[in-house]
Design brief:
This protein is α/β, with parallel strands linked by helices. The chain folds into two domains: 12-192 and 387-400, CDP-glycerol glycerophosphotransferase, N-terminal domain (Rossmann fold), CATH 3.40.50.11820; 196-380, Rossmann fold. The protein has 17 helices and 13 strands. Helix 2 crosses helix 5 (96-104).
Length: 403
């Protein structure tokens, strides 16, 4: 216990002490408000975004049940602020009102654990200890295929954990120690948007996940951190792929384009990536939308990212470029229930040449998903419809009504 306290003191900063003061100051006000303004829900993602399951669930509620007291916290300087504000009931992230409503809320519903709370560290600390009176619902921001230790039940207070497949729910129960009745198979809210799309047959999407060992604390981009990322095998491998003459010739001959969309955690390091070809564009989250890219693209190149489930939901072809599998398992996430070889919806390759062969073959097949992987899609998803938000709503209401 003494060592835990010492470790905590090492990371606490003066701002955290101030945040704790504000949290305690707003506590009685929020608890009084809770008596008069009942059934407040706070729906969120990260403090500066509204593009994932939190946003789509909030939008669904505002459009289908406008009288429900549901609120969305977001920074007012966010590029997504205007579209949330148009729905109403927006709160400035980190404001006194946000603090008060957190204490008054019946439910905290978020796609990111702790990121929708008023303060990133101290509020999260209180929530994980179960000190806020609201129920906590984790909408997730992807299908969980691995076993991230930070989401272990013993480190969190999550009352309802949203999942997409039966295998995912069983895997989370086993690896992260949740009771099976805390896990509800509903599908992700953003999937409601994936049944209506127009494919751009000329666009190939390259969207790998991040690497934990390259991400500095809070994504601070120092010159030292940038240089470390630039010299990593991860960046060098993708830059080598994007510079490949065989790939360039293929794009030119067939009038194709590649949209390279680094993961959100790698966005601070965009300068580390290079692509000296007019048919390759490196996307920034500031000017591009992930879901739009997924819906428009004809073929996906990823690695370990759960974004492969979104693409599979639309029954579109993909290839998984896993050049660093052993390093990923050691330094990022350990294995869980999901086998990329046996359960994923595209071919797993280890080398650049294998990847290019897979891409070229799919192009010759008019970018159609192979029957093998179509069958996997049909076996994996219990639902492929437009009712994911509705099922999420029903699951939350059942939780709050103690069903």
């Amino acid at each position: 216990m003494r060592q835990k306290i010492l470790n905590l003191l090492k990371v606490i900063k003066p701002r955290d002490v101030w945040d704790l003061f504000v949290i305690l100051l707003t506590c009685p006000i929020g608890l009084i408000l809770r008596l008069f303004k009942k059934n407040i829900w706070i729906v969120s993602e990260m403090e500066h975004t509204a593009r994932d399951n939190g946003y789509w669930f909030f939008k669904y509620l505002r459009e289908n049940d406008p009288d429900r007291p549901v609120y969305y916290p977001i920074r007012f300087d966010s590029p997504d602020y205007e579209k949330v504000a148009a729905l109403g009931n927006v709160i400035r992230h980190g404001s006194l009102r946000h603090h008060i409503y957190t204490w008054a809320a019946q439910a905290d519903i978020s796609a990111r654990t702790g990121r929708g709370l008023p303060t990133r560290m101290m509020s999260r600390l209180l929530q994980s200890r179960g000190l806020f009176p609201c129920k906590t619902v984790f909408l997730q921001h992807g299908v969980m295929m691995n076993a991230p230790a930070f989401l272990d039940k013993r480190l969190n207070k999550i009352d309802l954990f949203i999942t997409t497949t039966e295998a995912e729910a069983d895997g989370i129960a086993k690896d992260l120690h949740y009771d099976r009745n805390q896990l509800c198979v509903t599908g992700l809210c953003r999937y409601d948007q994936l049944n209506s799309f127009t494919v751009n047959k000329k666009q190939i999407l390259l969207m790998p996940t991040w690497r934990n060992w390259l991400y500095s604390d809070y994504g601070k981009v120092t010159e030292e951190a940038l240089e470390k990322v630039r010299n990593s095998d991860y960046v060098k491998t993708y830059c080598d792929l994007l510079a490949d003459k065989r790939l360039h010739a293929f794009l030119e001959e067939n009038d194709l384009h590649i949209l390279f969309f680094p993961h959100n955690q790698m966005q601070p390091y965009l300068k580390a990536f290079t692509a000296d070809n007019s048919r390759i564009r490196i996307a920034s989250t500031a000017d591009s939308d992930v879901q739009t890219a997924l819906k428009e693209s004809a073929f996906l190149i990823t690695d370990y990212s759960s974004i492969l489930f979104d693409f599979a939901y639309m029954k579109k072809p993909m290839c998984l470029y896993q050049f660093d599998y052993e390093d990923f398992r050691k330094g990022h996430y350990p294995e869980s229930y999901f086998s990329y070889e046996n359960d994923a919806f595209g071919k797993v390759v280890r080398t650049k040449d294998e990847l290019l062969d897979c891409l070229f073959t799919s192009y010759r097949n008019d970018f159609r998903m192979d029957r093998l992987y179509e069958d996997r899609v049909d076996r994996t998803f219990r639902f492929r419809d437009n009712n994911n938000c509705l099922r999420n709503l029903q699951a939350i209401e059942n939780l709050l009504n103690n069903k």
